[in-house]
Specification:
Elements (H helix, E strand, L loop, with lengths): L11 E6 L2 E6 L10 H16 L5 E6 L10 H4 L5 H15 L5 E5 L3 E2 L1 H8 L2 E5 L3 E3 L13 H7 L2 H10 L3 E2 H7 L4 E3 L4 H13 L3 H11 L1 H22 L2 H15 L1
Parallel strand pairs: 2-3, 3-4, 4-6, 5-7, 6-9
Antiparallel strand pairs: 1-2, 7-8
């Protein structure tokens, strides 16, 4: 059973070893949901990694069974999501604009807003058992803020089915759809992440920084141009009566 973090315990942990900064979501009690506090700590950890001369590569990982369940619906159901939607945009930008390659280690399910983190990453190594879903449509919402990174990564046909259907798809499908880079058995996940990181860390800091900027130039332009508009759309949908009713019902089912 996962423990609930005490107020003074971090929800995001940071460590660096062998040229790799590991940023770990550590809020298993709510399935690493993107709460205001977790997002604030995640942005701070990414800034720390950017300035850390001991790190050439960043790994984004999570504790517990679930990588990230998306927005914290208990927060979203209770107030304005405009700030929350803007922070989802900011997280994606922080990953995509990071001066170092960001490798995401997916040990388990990722949903909705969490898929924005996956899509913003440079390399994604997924365990075979990880599952994915853009569940927003079921709650009267749309994957608005995360569309900034998800749509450029996924094929248009795959994105249409995933976003309109809201159904769960597996890691093999995520690989085929362009959302993840590599899929491995769970027992080989750490070795695969280490292999990718060793390869990336062999690049010079300038080479890595400038190559990543080149690769993500169009993605960053899209985030900067459309981010505010899509955050506003997300906030409007979260504030709608239809979505509030759906989220309240969803949260009630979770407590039942």
């Amino acid at each position: 059973m996962s423990h609930e973090n005490t107020p003074d315990e971090p929800l995001v942990r940071y460590e660096v070893a062998d040229g790799v900064a590991t940023v770990t979501l550590d809020s298993p009690h709510n399935r690493n949901a993107l709460s205001r506090r977790l997002v604030t700590e995640l942005l701070a950890a990414l800034e720390r990694a950017a300035a850390d001369e001991a790190a050439r590569v960043v790994v984004l990982a999570a504790t517990g069974r679930v990588f990230c369940s998306g927005a914290d619906l208990s927060e979203a159901a209770g107030g304005s999501m405009e700030e929350g939607a803007l922070t989802i945009v900011a997280i994606q930008r922080a990953v995509a604009a990071h001066p170092k390659p960001v490798v995401t280690r997916l040990q388990g399910p990722v949903r909705a807003g969490g898929i924005g983190l996956v899509a913003a990453s440079d390399v994604v190594v997924s365990a075979e058992g990880a599952t994915f879903a853009l569940t927003e449509v079921k709650l009267g919402l749309a994957p608005a803020a995360i569309s900034l990174t998800v749509l450029p990564r996924m094929t248009s046909r795959a994105a249409s089915l995933a976003a309109l259907g809201g159904e769960v798809f597996d890691a093999a499908a995520a690989l085929e759809h362009g959302l993840v880079t590599r899929v491995v058995p769970a027992e080989g996940l750490d070795a695969a992440v280490e292999e990718v990181c060793a390869s990336l860390a062999s690049g010079s800091p300038q080479g890595l920084r400038e190559t990543k900027a080149l690769l993500n130039r169009d993605l960053l332009a899209r985030i900067d141009e459309r981010g505010p508009e899509l955050a506003a759309l997300s906030a409007r949908l979260f504030g709608s009566e239809e979505a509030k009713a759906a989220m309240t019902a969803f949260l009630a089912r979770g407590r039942g």
